[in-house]
Amino acid sequence: MRQAKSCEATPWNSRLLATDPVGGHADHVVADAIARRPAVPQCLIGLRIPHPSGTAGFIVEGGPKGTRIARGESSGIAAIEARFDALLQILGSHLQLHEAAASGAAKSEGSAHTLRKLLSLFEPAIAKR
Q: The sheet that has 43-51: what strands, in order across it?
């Protein structure tokens, strides 16, 4: 059975959401640590991260209180499916979504306009590391 857990992380004074499979080894992490806290564009974007035993699903929600990330299904909204390493490259502006899709590293569905808001929901701190 998989359980979501959160842990504190710095320097962004926020959390990481992780999924632990049986045995206690974290297999996927979605970075809430780099989520923006000030107001961001209003939107809902699903993130799906495939792994050997299924897919971890997250909902990224932007709004007046910043970016929130929660576990959840993304059916019916704009969504991106990518391995975790590819997702980090996209969030870090090292790989554009259309390039990731063209290479097969990511799949997207739904509103392209909404998906373009994804980068505005996260701090650019990982982009220049």
A: 66-71, 54-63, 43-51, 79-82, 106-109
Q: Which of 19-33, 58-72, 79-93 has the lowest mean pLDDT?
A: 19-33
Pick the closest to residue 82 from 61, 54, 101 (CA basis). Answer: 101
- The angle formed by the CA atoms of residues 56, 75 and 115, to the nearest 5 degrees, is 85
User: How many CB atoms neighbour CB 75 within 10 A?
Assistant: 11
Terminal alpha carbon distance of the chain: 35
| CATH level 3 topology of 35-122 | Nonspecific Lipid-transfer Protein; Chain A (3.30.1050)
Domain range summary for the chain, segments of one domain joined by +: 35-122
pLDDT band at residue 118 under the 50/70/90 scheme? very high
Number of Cβ within a 10 Å radius of residue 108: 18
pTM above 0.85, yes or no: no
